[in-house]
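Quick one: structure for this chain?
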Amino acid sequence: MPPIWLMRQAGRYLPEYRALRAEAGSFLDLCYNPAHAAEVTLQPIRRFGFDAAIIFADILLIPQALGQDLRFAEGEGPILAPIRDAKALSALTLEGLHKRLEPIYETVSRVHGLLDDQTALIGFAGAPWTVATYMVEGGGSRNFEHTKVWAFRDPAGFAALIDLIVEATIAYLSRQIDAGAEAIQLFDTWAGVLPETAFARWSIEPTHRIVAALRARYPAIPVIGFPRGAGVGLQDYAARTGVQGVGLDSAVPLSWARQAVQSQCTVQGNLDPLMVVAGGTAMTNEVRRIVSAFKDGPFVFNLGHGILPQTPPEHVAALVAAVRAPA
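Got it. Here's what it folds into:
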């Protein structure tokens, strides 16, 4: 049977998370409280016995640690003071990065000390392109107009922002590993909005730099890349970034991924999160199809994106049972 963990496995679908979230105050207060963040990280491990825990944090803590204003508005998501030119970019600095992120390292250390030897601990960060979209747009976006126009019109200026994020991400992930993370995932949630040449420059190349730096320092630590929506670009991504695992979103055809990606590295995925909301026979059948498709190569069962807040916890328990059922 393959190992299993789920993106956003610690979160709003669990009543114990909602209770702790109410106690903590704001979402950022929860992220920066090591005792609470460690508890949230461990909740799904206790409930479902996943093979890995992933640290509870957020990809936008790096922009905040660099000096960008960040808040989370109920029902709106993240809101940042936009960075759209060299003057705004010059206000950001790596100085104080680790001091601001120290609570995250403490969370990693706490969880590492509480997990048994059979459960891996995953650290993570956002990939530079995805983090940059939030920094430039000032939050989520439908068309990423400001980010793309800056990257297309002034690639050298935009590269300065990417370079800063790369440097900060290497430093951040290195400290997570020092604190006990045993694997790393890079979330490139918006990789799929880039055309081919831009995908190579702004997704593949920065990811390669992060992976190369981490592998030079920590050769035994695997890195998983998740360039959501990359489609056939996943083959180049696997070949050129140096990652040891590639996350597959739910739209990736299994037979193609087996030949194009699993032949190069471990694949991870890719059940549609709404299948877990639906549950029942449809979910079980799809689980069996995915497990069967990847059974002859390195594979980690996961979703094609994060678990949804409306997911019944009993459906997650059924999912874990289905993955672990004898073939």
